[in-house]
Amino acid sequence: MTHPYAGLIDLAQPRLGGAVVYATDDFFADKSRMIDPAEPVFIPGKYDDNGKWMDGWESRRKRVPGHDWAIVRLGAPGQIAGFEIDTRNFTGNFPPAASVEACVSEAEIPGEDADWTLLVPRIDLQGDGRRFVNAVHDGVWTHVKLNIFPDGGVARFRVFGTIHKDWSKVAADAVLDLLAMENGGRGLIANDEHFGRVENLTAPGRGKDMGDGWETRRRREPGHDWAVLELGHAGVIEEIIVDTAHFKGNYPDRCSIQATLEAHGTAAEIAEAAADWPVLLGEVKLSMDHIHVFRDEVTKLGPVKFVRLNIYPDGGVSRLRLKGRLA
User: Fold this and answer.
1) What's the confidence (pLDDT) of residue 1?
2) Whether domain 170-326 has CATH 2.60.120.260
3) Rounded to 5 degrees, what are φ and ψ at 269?
4) Tens digit of pLDDT for each residue in 135-162?
5) Could you tell me the residue ranges of all domains in the chain?
6) How far is Cα of residue 25 from the mean position of the Cα atoms in its chain?
7) What's residue 2's pLDDT?
8) How far apart are CA 170 and CA 214, in angstroms?
9) Residue 202: Cβ within 10 Å count
10) CA angle 186, 189, 191 (to 5 degrees)
11) Which helix or strand (DSSP H or E) is residue 225 part of?
12) Is the pTM of this model over 0.70?
């Protein structure tokens, strides 16, 4: 099944700088677990001093009027398309309803004067399930508030959207990674993401392990694998870095990159057209667990906004960096 927010960034993810900065109550399960990028798990028989250990955020049973909430500081200001409220493994202790608000604040924890906007009116939740819901208002936000009614546990909370970067503050001659997640770069689509997601290619820092990269299954038929990504801003690429960190027996033998300035339609339609894009980097050999830097090999195409990374025939790449100047 295609993810309803495929191609968008989880703005709350910790590696981008997202954090749960406040919760009215997290007696049973620490609020920080709610934005853990890993899938939630249930461990039978695991208890701590406060009761059953749960992988998520869980408040105690409320015995007074009101409801619980948690505030997430986004890793970067962004435009929000929608949310995932995940109650997996919470059965007799899930909240029956929730709503989501957002605001703009320079404070770590927005104060009482914060102007919160309702992005998701109160909706019903089910236990041990996943609810995807669209934001009902546009805007650029820095914080979101998850309200649960009246109490209970949420395994994971995802905030899907695009990063908003103020490019007017970037010097015209500055060289930066235009594909970096923190600069608005994002993975749009890949022909295969069996072992690792395409969005990992744009993530901050080096990959922590093989799971923190884009990796395809073993190809048993002719052809090669590919991924299409969008830069945060159109630019002229001067340097390309292909990092195969941690990929040793499963790195691609070779790679190449195609690019274009304009692309239109759905992600699938863009991917279909990408096969005919001009070559930005011709086929080059790759090595295991290595940072490959290409400068002289980069074709002078002028400004580009979209790229297709081809790997031959399959395998894993940890990070892709496209350094250049704004167009």
Assistant:
1) 64
2) yes
3) -70, -40
4) 999 999 999 999 999 999 999 999 999 9
5) 9-163, 170-326
6) 27
7) 79
8) 29
9) 26
10) 145
11) strand 225-243
12) yes
Q: How far is CA 23 from the centre of its chain?
A: 23
DSSP collapsed to 3 states, 270-295: HHHHHCCCCEEEEEEECCCCCEEEEC
**What percent of the chain clears pLDDT 90, i.e. is strictly above it?**
99
What stretches of 244-275 adopt beta strand conformation (E)? Answer: 254-260
User: Distance of CA 159 to CAs 66, 162, 238, 281, Å?
Assistant: 25, 10, 33, 34
SS3 assignment for 107-169: CCCCCCCCCCEEEEEEEECCCCCEEEEECCCCCEEEEEEEEEECCCEECEEEEEEEECCCHHH
Task: Grade residue 286 by pLDDT with cuts at 50, 70 and 90.
Answer: very high
pLDDT recorded at residue 11 = 98
Q: Could you tell me if 204 and 181 are in contact, meaning their C-beta atoms sit under 8 angstroms apart?
A: yes
Residue 103: in which H helix or E strand, if any? Answer: strand 97-103
User: Do residues 257 and 240 make contact, with C-beta atoms less than 8 angstroms apart?
Assistant: yes
9-163 and 170-326, same CATH topology = yes
pLDDT tens by residue, 198-255: 999 999 999 999 999 999 999 999 999 999 999 999 999 999 999 999 999 999 999 9
Reply yes or no on whether the pLDDT at 172 is more than 80.
Answer: yes
What are the beta bridge partners of residue 320?
Answer: 242
Class of domain 9-163 as given by CATH: mainly beta
Residue type at position 202: T
